[in-house]
Amino acid sequence: MIIIDAGHGGNDPGAVANGVKEKDWTMEVALHQYEFLKSLGIPCAITRRTDIDLSSEKRSSLVKGSGASICLSNHYNAGGGSGAEVIHSIYAKSDLAGSIAESLKKAGMGVRRVFSRVGADRKDYYYMHRLTGDVETVIIEYGFLDSSSDVNKLKARSYRLQLAEEAVLAAVRYLKGAPQSLYYVQAGAYKEKVNADQLCQKLKKNGYDAFVKKV
Questions:
Q1: 44 CB neighbour count, 10 Å cutoff
Q2: What is the pLDDT at residue 176?
Q3: Residue 169 burial (C-beta neighbours within 10 Å; 0-12, 13-18, 19+)
Q4: Cα angle 37-94-130, degrees, rounded to a multiple of 5
Q5: Half-sphere exposure of residue 209, counting CA atoms within 13 Å on the CB side?
Q6: What pLDDT band is residue 196 in, cutting at 50, 70 and 90?
Q7: From 5-9, 61-65, 72-76, 203-207, the region with the lowest mean pLDDT
Q8: Dist. CA 52–CA 46, nearest whole Å
Q9: pLDDT, tens only, 19-46
Q10: Quick one: residue 164, left, alpha or beta (phi over 0 = left, psi -120 to 50 = alpha)?
Q11: Is residue 210 pLDDT above 80, yes or no?
């Protein structure tokens, strides 16, 4: 199971730059990831569906109690810099974070670094690592809102959602122990949804894990 986290929310806008509030874009990609996982038949959950406040205790409690193996915590950066950052716990290997970073890079987003951070108490600096128990939580910063090169890419909603899907697919491969690449078979494409639904039902009756996706 994978739980999706939309960083910030409510009175906490997160990073703000170039007319964008981080909390809005994290909500957008989190909801897309959640629906995307459902379409793939992967058990999933989400920390918030609307623009609400979540304290660190509430957010981490939702993740810890979800029964998930992986948490993807979605964010956007600011403060000088460029490129995506993927952050893992000091107690976790970098395999999942590295796989997500590689997927983002292949999709055209530069990667600044993959790292973990130690706090003054020698524990994880970020509470999403420190307080989420056995759930392997990865914080994904998809780029810098105050970087012109990043924002020129991220201003396209389709690109933001593409990066979100790449992160999810990397997590699914990691969860299933699959190689870096997954291959999809398309059985048909139709202008009318009813025709797509009919083929989908036929495939399911024959034992195939089929689903309809609008593109």
A1: 21
A2: 87
A3: buried
A4: 80
A5: 6
A6: confident
A7: 203-207
A8: 13
A9: 999 999 999 999 999 999 999 999 999 9
A10: alpha
A11: no
Is residue 98 within 8 A of residue 86, CB to CB? The reply is: yes
Read off the tokens for 112.
């600044």
Q: Which residues lie below 8 Å from residue 106, measured CB to CB, with a gap of 6+?
A: 166
| Contact between 154 and 141 (Cβ < 8 Å) | no
**Measuring CA to CA, how many Å separate 48 from each of 7, 90, 157?**
9, 26, 20
Predicted pLDDT of residue 117? 98
Tokens, residue 117: 């951070």
- Per residue, the 3-state secondary structure of 52-115, as one string, reads CCCCHHHHHHHHHCCCCCEEEEEEEECCCCCCEEEECCCCCCCHHHHHHHHHHHHCCCCEEEEE
